[in-house]
Design goal:
α1 runs parallel beside α11 (about 325-340), α6 (about 130-150) runs parallel beside α7 (about 175-190) and α6 (about 130-150) packs antiparallel against α11. The protein has helices at about 20-30, 45-50, 60-65, 80-85, 100-110, 130-150, 175-190, 205-210, 235-250, 270-275, 325-340, 355-360, 370-375, and strands at about 1-5, 30-35, 55-60, 70, 90, 110-115, 160, 165, 170-175, 190-195, 210-215, 255, 280-285, 305, 310-315, 340-345, 345, 360-365, 365. β7 (about 160) and β8 (about 165) form a beta hairpin. By secondary structure, it is of the alpha/beta class. Strands 3-2-1-4-5-6-18-19 form an eight-stranded mixed β-sheet, with helices on both faces. Bound molecules: nicotinamide-adenine-dinucleotide. Nicotinamide-adenine-dinucleotide binds near residues 127, 136 and 178.
């Protein structure tokens, strides 16, 4: 079987789906590996390093002609998708919920699509394949560094002959995988950290990282299915925004990470809350998206300074800014899933298997994933968020 790694074409995408270490492991499992010329450049993995690990270096056309399985980080571009043929498999974070037409096109072309971002994360055996967690960990770490970099003061307490700097007060909103890593990183930089989540079960995790858990009096718990949060009602949302505004005003740095599966990110920092912050404060919005983020006015990939001097950074693809680490972790997720799907040297799809039912999107000319057959409803449902 030939698996092939394409050079990513997404905007600002520096990651690569396999690194040489993973290539060597797949070779040992009897898999032939092809890598598109320059695929690893953005992650500081040279063609030579891939060759040394046992991969063949090929052009995009050669790769598409020869590959049984094409490995990607993000969704391949339209030209690549159009060039795929019957019997080929594409495996990557395809975000199929954001574009139901993609699954239909792949099914019509007879391509098997496997989407890592759809992995059933609660299955213990899926943990080595959980690319959402591996990339969220990296994003949370980087968010704290981006915030520290943009902040015109120190994160730690510093006592010097030229004066004493008080530690920065950092607030993390949303304490899932990314939020917890942001807490740990901000703490290691010496900041005083507080955090809030609608899922009260995160309180002990927050406290174990040395941060203070903020409890709102106006909003109860909002734990939903599968360890995720549920969407708040309009009244809850309003009460949450109002009460959070007071906490936000008392912090120098805010990092927002809140997501609700299948919906646009909840607005946590309103324009009034922004007005309440002091000049020089910094917000990193990890929920920033084209449809709106956790912070009023934030735009993905843009940095805005408000009239009262608050820097609002719309985070876009933070894992790509840590391309070497992100690719190494992603490669482990990809090779775990590949090896799970391998039987006697070729891919053996088995839709009776609960893990495979979660990740296989198209198979034998049909869209087989239940979430694509029956999209979730809701007024602010976004055919978009991949979870
Ligand atoms: P996520 O990216 O979907 O959301 C990030 C956080 O935002 C969550 O903690 C969520 O509760 C919070 N949030 C949503 N709406 C909010 C609001 N209005 N106000 C404040 N906070 C809000 O979450 P994630 O990081 O992908 O992980 C979510 C859960 O999945 C966690 O419990 C995690 O432990 C769990 N998980 C479990 C496994 C496993 O069982 N193996 C693997 C990975 C993740």
């Amino acid at each position: 079987m030939k698996v092939a790694v394409i050079k990513e074409t997404g905007p600002d995408e520096r990651r690569v789906a396999l690194v040489p270490e993973a290539v060597a492991k797949l070779r040992a499992a009897g898999v032939e590996v092809l890598v598109e010329t320059g695929a690893g450049d953005g992650a500081w993995q040279s063609d030579e390093a891939f060759t040394d690990a046992g991969a063949g270096i090929v052009t995009r056309d050669e790769l598409i002609a020869a590959a049984d399985v094409i490995l990607t980080v993000g969704r391949p571009d339209d030209a690549t998708i159009a060039a795929l043929r019957q019997g080929q498999t594409v495996l990557g974070m395809l975000a199929p919920l954001s574009d139901p037409g993609l699954a239909n096109r792949l099914a019509e072309a007879g391509v098997t699509a496997v989407s890592l971002d759809m992995i059933p994360r609660t299955l213990p055996r899926a943990q080595p394949m959980d690319a959402l967690s591996s990339q969220a960990n990296i994003a949370g770490y980087k968010a704290a560094l981006v915030a520290a970099d943009a902040f015109g003061r120190f994160f730690p307490l510093l006592i010097t002959a030229a004066g004493t700097a008080r530690p920065a007060k950092v607030l993390i909103l949303g304490t899932g995988v990314a939020g917890l890593q942001a807490i740990g990183t901000a703490r290691r930089l010496g900041a005083v950290v507080s955090a809030y989540d609608v899922r009260p079960e995160t309180k002990t995790e927050v406290q174990s990282l040395g941060a203070t858990f903020i409890e709102l009096t106006s909003v109860g718990q909002a734990s939903g299915e599968g360890g995720y949060a549920r969407a708040l009602t309009e009244d809850e949302r309003q009460a949450q925004q109002d009460e959070l505004a007071g906490h936000i005003a008392r912090h120098d740095v805010v990092i927002t990470t809140a997501q609700v599966p299948g919906r646009r990110p909840p607005l946590l920092v309103t324009s009034d809350a922004l007005k309440g912050m002091s000049a020089g404060s910094v917000i990193v919005d990890m929920g920033a998206s084209a449809l709106g983020g956790n912070v009023a006015g934030s735009e993905p990939g843009e940095t805005i300074v408000t009239e009262n001097g608050v820097t609002v950074i719309g985070a876009a693809n933070l894992p790509s800014k840590m391309a070497a680490a992100a690719s190494a972790m992603y490669a482990r997720n990809v090779s775990s899933l590949l090896q799970y799907l391998l039987k006697d040297g070729s891919l053996a799809v088995d839709l009776e298997d609960d893990l495979q039912r979660g990740v296989v999107i198209t198979y034998e000319g049909r869209v087989v994933h239940p979430a694509l057959a029956e999209p979730a409803g809701g007024t602010d449902h976004v055919d978009g968020a991949a979870h």
